[in-house]
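During the reporting period the student researcher (J.K.) took over the structure-prediction task from the postdoctoral fellow and processed the backlog of single-chain submissions. One of the processed entries is reproduced below for the supervisory committee.
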Amino acid sequence: MTLNIYELISQHIQNIPVDLESLFKKAGISYKKEHLSPDIFGCLKRLSDDNYEITVNLSNSVNRQRFTAAHELGHFVLHRHLLGDGVNDNTAYRSVVGSECYNSNITARHETEANMFAATVLMPTAAVKQLWDAGTKSPAELASKFQVSTAAMEIRLRSLGLR
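J.K. obtained the following structure tokens:
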């Protein structure tokens, strides 16, 4: 039996930091890191009917690459029906007009949804609360454990009512 994407994600968020590359491989999503334009964090492209590729900007920090990859996974899971050939995201997580993967179907709301999805995948509620309850309350220390930025962790803690 083939696992669906939600089952794969559920399996992969059991351990932190979440192994995105393993998740992508099992989901059949190609994953690349390459130097992109400085204003582009990443891109999700449809290569063929059922084949997709996530590319992140190698010039960004590892934490930024991870968040961008999870954000693009969010587009894959939540917005695939809107993607056409794909979508890219600039530093404000907005699709860039005139760029290779520009997609006018992706709105600010879709970008917010992809950000929330990324935060949930990279910083699973149960894992964050478990560490918090065990006494790890420093956003920087938590961010290090989850391999995300301190800013992303602070936002996640607020969304969980822990700050």
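The committee noted the following: The radius of gyration is 15 Å.
J.K. will present the remaining backlog at the next meeting.
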